[in-house]
Design goal:
CATH architecture: 3-Layer(aba) Sandwich
Radius of gyration: 30 Å
CATH class: Alpha Beta
Structural class: alpha+beta
Number of domains: 1
Strand order of the largest sheet: 1-2-3-7-6-5-4
CATH topology: Protein Transport Mog1p, Chain A
Number of helices: 3
Shape: globular
Helix content: 25-40%
Distance between the termini: 83 Å
Order of helices and strands: HEEEHEEEEH
Length: 161
């Protein structure tokens, strides 16, 4: 009896294994990764201040020629012979904007935290930069002292929504 049960189990196992076939299943074809397309920049030049504006343009990548900053809207200004710039960068989320700001902060010389703006004031090697994030935006004023840039930055922040 014991032997008959064992032979029956072996017969069932042989039938199951014979259905497996000796060949491996065909591997699924490998798909080539699609080229990652950069999202199109949104034009926020209308959000830049109009007073003292000389020109505006879209920068495809690396605003302020910084590898830490993506592209965005850029404005050039002049008041009484003093030149300065403003920029607005839109990211995918508030978290991404905070990460961009934190990454850029590491490149600033002697960054001073501006608590009420959630940003920093420091030098980038060539000029002073007042940079902050609000919602999904990173924005800044370049080339002015903190006292000159602060009211402009507050006004710029008010236009970001």
């Amino acid at each position: 009896m014991w032997m008959a049960a064992r032979l029956g189990a072996l017969a069932v196992l042989a039938v199951l294994l014979s259905g497996c076939g000796g060949s491996e299943p065909a591997a699924a074809p490998v798909q080539k990764a699609a080229a990652v397309e950069k999202p199109k920049l949104k034009d926020h030049r209308a959000g830049l201040a109009l007073e003292n504006q000389v020109s505006t343009r879209m920068v495809e990548d690396h605003i302020l020629e910084s590898l830490k900053l993506p592209g965005g809207s850029f404005g050039e200004y002049e008041k009484k012979g003093k030149k300065y710039q403003m920029f607005i960068i839109e990211s995918a989320s508030a978290q991404e904007a905070a990460l961009i700001l934190f990454s850029y902060k590491a490149t600033l010389q002697s960054p001073e935290y501006i608590a009420y703006m959630g940003g920093y004031f420091g030098g980038d090697g060539k000029q002073s930069v007042y940079v902050f994030s609000k919602k999904e935006y990173v924005a800044g004023i370049v080339g002015l002292s903190m006292a000159e840039a602060d009211p402009m930055a507050r006004s710029l922040a008010g236009r970001l929504h």
